[in-house]
């Protein structure tokens, strides 16, 4: 598994060097860039990690780089690092999705703590999104009737009770449940329900059966 990459974007060579050394000792892969333009030109859309971004640089400033990443659909966490920390700029950065805003000079322990927090959060969200995509793909394999029976089953209804409500035989409902388990690749529908809920997926019957 590749190490998360921390991108340090700052026009001050001394800061790039010191942060690079600090982050590498903490086990991160580091890429440093002297300008926003250089960073954007070299950036790989599939990169994981975070960006430590200077606010004021010649050429593109930090907020402009942030806006360009957003335009490209890049959701890499951003920690702003600036020698000037005015409230309006901080508010703008945070509203645009920045994870944090630190003022130079920042203690090493504080910076590392922030980096670790945003990288861990990003990794968790990535894993959650992957699980969500996987579960949605399985649910899309179900027929409307199977989704209806799934919804009734996870609400605690027995096969007999479901059969009575839908006007089906109990054997038919049980066969449906076997196919549901196979398509969802689970032996426990309640467990699947909890996994789906954790990913923000609501298991509801199709509208035509409501």
UniProtKB/TrEMBL annotation:
* Coiled-coil portions: 118-145
Q: Name one GO biological process term.
A: regulation of DNA-templated transcription
Query: What Gene Ontology terms describe what this protein does at the molecular function level?
Result: DNA binding
Q: By its UniProt entry, which InterPro entries does this protein fall under?
A: CheY-like_superfamily, Sig_transdc_resp-reg_C-effctor, Sig_transdc_resp-reg_receiver, Tscrpt_reg_LuxR_C, WH-like_DNA-bd_sf
Q: Which residues form the Response regulatory domain?
A: 5-119
Q: What are the UniProt keywords, alphabetically?
A: Coiled coil, DNA-binding, Phosphoprotein, Transcription, Transcription regulation, Two-component regulatory system
Q: Name the PROSITE patterns for this protein.
A: HTH_LUXR_1, HTH_LUXR_2, RESPONSE_REGULATORY
- Keyword flag Cell inner membrane: no
4-aspartylphosphate carried by residues: 54
Name the SMART domains for this protein: HTH_LUXR, REC
Region forming the signal peptide: none
Q: Where is the HTH luxR-type domain?
A: 135-200
Protein's recorded name: Response regulator transcription factor
Question: Per the UniProt entry, what species is this protein from, by scientific name?
Answer: Parasulfuritortus cantonensis
């Amino acid at each position: 598994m590749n190490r998360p990459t921390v991108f340090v974007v700052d026009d001050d060579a001394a800061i790039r060097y010191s942060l690079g050394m600090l982050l590498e000792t903490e086990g991160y892969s580091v890429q440093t860039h002297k300008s926003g333009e250089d960073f954007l030109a070299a950036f790989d859309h599939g990169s994981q990690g975070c960006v430590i971004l200077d606010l004021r640089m010649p050429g593109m400033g930090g907020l402009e780089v942030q806006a360009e990443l957003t335009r490209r659909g890049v959701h890499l966490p951003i920690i702003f690092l600036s020698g000037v920390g005015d409230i309006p700029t901080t508010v703008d950065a945070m509203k645009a999705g920045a994870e944090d805003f630190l003022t130079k000079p920042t203690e090493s322990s504080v910076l590392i703590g922030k980096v670790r927090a945003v990288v861990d959060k990003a990794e968790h969200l990535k894993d959650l999104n992957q699980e969500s995509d996987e579960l949605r793909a399985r649910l899309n394999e179900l027929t409307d009737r199977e989704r209806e029976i799934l919804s009734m089953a996870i609400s605690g209804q027995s096969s007999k009770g479901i059969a009575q409500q839908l006007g089906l035989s109990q054997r038919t409902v049980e066969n449906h449940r076997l196919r549901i388990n196979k398509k969802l690749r689970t032996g426990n529908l309640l467990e699947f329900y909890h996994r789906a809920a954790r990913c923000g997926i609501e298991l509801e019957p199709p509208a035509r059966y409501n």
